[in-house]
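lol ok so funny story. i was supposed to be doing the assay writeup but got distracted and ended up predicting the structure for this chain instead. priorities right. anyway since i did it might as well share w the group, maybe its usefull for someone
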Amino acid sequence: MSKGILVILSGFSGSGKGTLMKRLLEKYDNYALSVSATTRSPRPGERDGVDYFYKTEEEFSRMIRNDEFLEYACYVNHSYGTPAAYVDEQLNLGKDVILEIEIQGALKVKKKRPDTVLIFVTPPSAEELERRLTGRGTETQEVIQQRMARAVEEAESMEHYDYILVNDTVEECVDQLHLLIQSQHLQTSHQRDFIREIRGELREREEHRK
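and the output, tada:
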């Protein structure tokens, strides 16, 4: 069984990352979502180890000291991090692990794990992004403008990603995402066991001919 691949999805708010991930897991096997650790309390219906790994401030700090996170950050008085142990467990089971995080965290993981595949999700145009944010009907015009301003900043980091995925039609984009991830398994860096195996077989056959 070959080891899985770690994939990070980032993108503008309103690009449809969450919808893509949900549909990817529904449509295809062999994917696992990374579960983050957090110091915030569980909300009604949330389960430890499924939605998050819930940690005390002391536990979270200890994990930082022990270098147990691929990346971590603090948002609105609570800390969030990606536990390396859970990710590695899923990868060793042959699962391709999907992690949805912001650009800063994605670049930290890439630095720590250079074989991580970074994919940036974007709508086909700025006009479409604003239309989607407005279409949610859940945010004020002020919040929408803040998100658009944030997108201007995030766009400056797009070239740091390995791939840009344009989310125009969800089903088509999900299929592209799946094919993109699966193609990574064919890279020589992920085929070293096979390379060793076939080299050995070829040498063995050559020895028998002599």
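The beta strands are 6-11, 31-33, 37-38, 53-54, 69-75, 78-83, 96-100, 117-122, 163-166. Residues 192-209 form the longest helix (18 residues).
back to the writeup now i swear
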